[in-house]
Amino acid sequence: MRIAIAQLNLHIGDFEGNLAKMLSAVENAKSQHADLVCFTELAVCGYPPRDFLEFDDFIRKCEASIEKLAQAAQGIAIIVGAPTRNPILDGKDLYNSAYFLEDGKIKQVQHKALLPTYDIFDEYRYFEPATEFKVIEFKGKRIALTICEDIWNLGNENPLYTIVPMDKLMSQKPDLMINISASPFAYDHAEERLHVIRANVERYQLPMFCANQVGAYTEIIFDGGSLVLSPNGKVFDELPYFEDCIRVYDLDKVIAGNQEIAQPREKFRLIHDALVMGIRDYFRKSGLKTAILGLSGGIDSAVTAVLAARALGQDNVRVVLMPSQFSSDHSVNDARELAKNLGIQYDIVPIQEIYESYIEVLKPHFFGLPFNITEENLQARIRGMIAMAFSNKFGNILLNTSNKSEMAVGYGTLYGDMCGGLSVIGDVYKTEVYELAKYINKDSIVIPENSIIKPPSAELRPNQKDSDSLPEYDILDPILYQYIEKRQGPQELIAMGFDEALVRRVLRLVNINEFKRHQVAPVLRVSSKAFGVGRRMPIVGKYLS
User: Fold this and answer.
1) Catalytically annotated residue among 41, 123, 149, 219
2) Is residue 412 included in any domain, yes or no?
3) Which CATH number do you get for residue 432?
C-alpha cells in the first residue's frame, strides 16, 4: 500500500478554495501511484471554524465538499476531516469526524473522542465525543484512524480524559495507525508532538502516519511537520515546517525503516518562520496586501519591519518615522538605515509642532501640574493617529510592534503605540526580540547594530530608558515567563529565589493591565501561552491586585 500525506494551508470557510486544493492534491497523489491520501482535521472547512459551526448553511457546505471529494475517490481512497451531524437529540449537534472515502462513496466515518477544551481549544463547545471505534479495512490492511487529541491520552495518563481510543482500536488488531491533526505551533511543540507520537508507536508497535495542518489562521499558527514513524519508533520522515507538502510512502518500506530523519528545531528560526507565515497568511486570507508601521529606530519596530518585508515583499511595506524633540539623532538614522537596507518606502513626519499645539490647548486645564505620563502618552497617541491616517489614506494595515514584556506589564499606550490590526511580536519577550534580531542578522547586517546594542527607550522624555520604569528585561522576563507560561503564583516565584517585592510589583502590573490587552489586535501565537484566545483572565479580578 502507498499512502500519501497532504499537508495543506487551507482557509477557514473557503469551501471552493479548500476543495480545489484537495482535489489537486488527490490528482498529485494518484500521479505518484498512491492508494490512499490523508488530509488533516476539519480540512474541508479549515480549523478552527469556531462559531461558524453553529450555522446550518456552513455544515451544508461541508457536506457538499465531502460529496465532491467522495466522487473524486476513484482509483484512490481519501481520509479527510469534516464536521458531522449528530442524529441523536441528546448531546451536541455535531461530531468532529474523519471520513474514509472510496469508490465514489462515503465508506466509513470515525468521530473524535477526546475533545480538548483548554488554551486555544474549545471543542466541547461544539462537538459530541465519540463512543464507538472501528478499524477501517482497506487493501488487506486494518487501519486505526484517530483525530489529533485522540492519541494524546497514552495509557490513560492524561487526567483530562477517561478513555484511550487506541486501546479500544487495538482489540481489532490494526496493522497501522493514521492520525489526522490540527496541532498548533509553539516553538517547543514540535518536540512534544514527536514525543507523543513516538510513545504511541512504541506502545502499540505499529507504524504511524500523522497528517498535520499548516498555515496561519488569524492568531493561531500551524507548522505542518507531519510525521511518519516506523514500528521501531524511528522517524521515517517529517514533512517541512510552514510549507504545503504532499509526499507518498510505501507502507512496507515504512515498516522496515531504520533511518531517523531529524529536522532542525532551532527556537529562533522557528519563531522567525512562524511570524513571517503569520503575517503573510493574515494579509492573504483577509484580502489585504500592504502594511505600514511606525519605525522608531528601536529593536521592536526594526524586527517587525524585517518580518513584514519578508512576508509581504519590500514593495508592500511602508514605514513612518515620527521623531519628537526627545528623539535622538541616532534613532532617526538607525530607522532610516534599516528602511534603506530593506528597500522599503519611508516617510518622516516630525511630531514636535503637533505635540506643542496639544500642550498649548491643554495648558489652561493642566496649569501648575508637572510633566508626567500624560505628556508621554500624548506623543504616543499623536504617532498612533498619524500612522492610522496613513493607513486610512493609502489602504495599508497598521502593524503593532509591542513585545510580550511590554504588553504584560502595560508599558504601552492605548490608542497610541498599541494601535494596529495585527500584533506581530506580542508573544515574543523583549529578551527574545534581541535573539530574533541576531538571527535576522546571522548572514548579513540587516538591522543596524546600534538598534541592537543601545539601551531600550521609548524616548518620550529627556534621556529616558525602559529601566527607569521597569526592571531590566533579563530580570523581568523570567518572572513573566514563570507567571504567564508556567502559571506560577507569587509564593512559587519567591521560592525560586526571585525578590518578593519585585515579584509582587510585576504580577500586579500584569493583572491591572488586563484591560489594555483586551483592546489590542490579535497576537500571533508562537509560545505555549500567548495573550489572546488562549489566556482568559477577568479584567476586574482582584487576585494579586
Assistant:
1) 41
2) yes
3) 3.40.50.620
Domain count, the chain: 2
Comparing CA positions, the residue from 263, 316, 325 lying closest to residue 290 is 316
Which of 38, 45, 62, 148 is the catalytic position? 148
- Selecting among 21, 61, 62, 112, the annotated active-site residue is 112
Instruction: Indicate the pairing of strand 94-102 with strand 77-85.
Output: antiparallel
Q: Which residues of 115-128 are buried (b: 16+ CB within 10 A; e: fewer)?
A: bbeebbbbbeebbb
Q: Is 406 a catalytic residue?
A: no
Mean local confidence (pLDDT), 326-330? 78
What is residue 115's predicted lDDT score, i.e. its pLDDT? 97
- Same domain for 116 and 49? yes
Specify whether 279 is located in the same domain as 245: no
Q: Which residue has the cell 546600534?
A: 450
> Hey, which residues does 80 pair with through a beta bridge?
99
Residue 41 is among the residues annotated as catalytic for this protein: yes
Which grid coordinates are listed for 352?
514636535
> Cα(191)–Cα(473) distance, rounded to whole angstroms?
27
Q: Is 202 exposed, middle or buried (0-12, 13-18, 19+ CB in 10 A)?
A: middle
Amino acid at 484: I
Please, which contacts does 454-460 make with residues 24 or more away whose CB atoms are closer than 8 Å? Answer: 454/330, 456/298, 456/299, 456/430, 457/298, 458/376, 458/380, 458/411, 458/417, 459/296, 459/324, 459/326, 459/327, 459/328, 459/331, 460/324, 460/326, 460/375, 460/376, 460/379, 460/380
Q: Give the pTM.
A: 0.95
Distance CA 461, CA 220 (A): 37
In the three-class reduction of DSSP (H, G, I as helix; E, B as strand; rest coil), residue 132 is classed as coil
What is the residue type of 443? D
**Catalytic status, residue 54:** no
pLDDT band at 246 (very low <50, low <70, confident <90, very high): very high
Q: Per residue in 112-166, pLDDT tens?
A: 999 999 999 999 999 999 999 999 999 999 999 999 999 999 888 888 898 999 9
